[in-house]
Automatic annotation (TrEMBL):
GO MF entries: AMP kinase activity; ATP binding
Annotated localization: Cytoplasm
Complex formation: Monomer.
InterPro entries for this protein: Adenyl_kin_sub, Adenylat/UMP-CMP_kin, Adenylat_kinase_CS, Adenylate_kinase_lid-dom, P-loop_NTPase
Gene name as annotated: adk
Keywords: ATP-binding, Cytoplasm, Kinase, Nucleotide biosynthesis, Nucleotide-binding, Transferase
Binding site for AMP: T31, R36, N57, L58, V59, G85, F86, P87, R88, Q92, R161, R172
First-listed, main subcellular location of the protein, grouped into a coarse class: cytoplasm
Source lineage: Bacteria, Bacillati, Actinomycetota, Actinomycetes, Kitasatosporales
Protein name: Adenylate kinase
Any GO CC annotation of this UniProt entry: cytoplasm
Length: 218
């Protein structure tokens, strides 16, 4: 299957993408991984992306699109893929449509993970990260540390990253609503969108997603 995964920040896209890609035996392609791979390998596209990122600028659509097209053309993606974080806006969605049409293939589904805005804020703003090791992450509601403000693993101080502050989360949500959410209508016009609730346990959301995608399999 060829799938685009979309949803607001905090919807659990990365987690669901990993599970779904494994279940469906297709590669999980994320923009973050694309950038890291191209930059670490020193490709021309990676050098272009790095120059923009080093200057504190957004990587232009044409560079992101070129990276995605290159990755989708690799052998493991011939029979399908799951795109996570791309397309990020309507112009990227239109470019993806053209790229797939040129290869005489098309998307099977656009999986829309739906989460109430209040829950998104709660999920992200409640995160607390260890100053000693950023891989140690807790949540004030869902996975609190045994002792408030102290990492269970190493005893380091837990703090709220600036990226996780409520003001930053609401700004990210605004960007999502204005830039990314319109792609849902773009794909709805092609009868590709399946919307599911992303509330509940990870396994429950995965099963919900697989059931919804089954109806779209060709």
């Amino acid at each position: 299957m060829r799938i685009v995964l979309v949803g607001p920040p905090g919807a659990g896209k990365g987690t669901q993408a990993a599970f779904l890609a494994k279940k469906l035996s297709i590669p999980h392609i994320s923009t973050g991984d694309l950038f890291r791979a191209n930059i670490s390998q020193g490709t021309d596209l990676g050098k272009q992306a790095k120059s923009y990122m080093d200057a504190g600028n957004l990587v232009p659509d044409e560079v992101t699109i070129a990276m995605a097209k290159d990755r989708m053309a690799q052998q493991d993606a011939v029979n399908g893929f799951l795109l996570d974080g791309f397309p990020r806006n309507v112009s990227q969605a239109e470019a993806l449509d053209l790229a797939l049409k040129a290869d005489d293939v098309s998307l099977d589904a656009v999986l829309d993970l739906e989460v109430p805005e209040g829950e998104v804020v709660k999920r992200i703003a409640g995160r607390r990260t260890c100053r000693n090791d950023s891989s140690h992450v807790f949540h004030v509601t869902y996975s609190p540390p045994k002792k408030e403000g102290v990492c269970d693993v190493c005893g380091g101080e837990l703090y709220q990253r600036e990226d996780d502050s409520e003001a930053t989360v609401r700004n990210r949500l605004n960007v999502y609503h204005t830039q990314t959410e319109p792609i849902i209508d773009h794909y709805r016009a092609q009868d590709l969108v399946v919307t599911i609730s992303a509330l509940g346990k990870v396994e429950e959301v995965t099963e919900r997603a697989l059931a919804a995608l089954k109806d779209k399999q060709k």
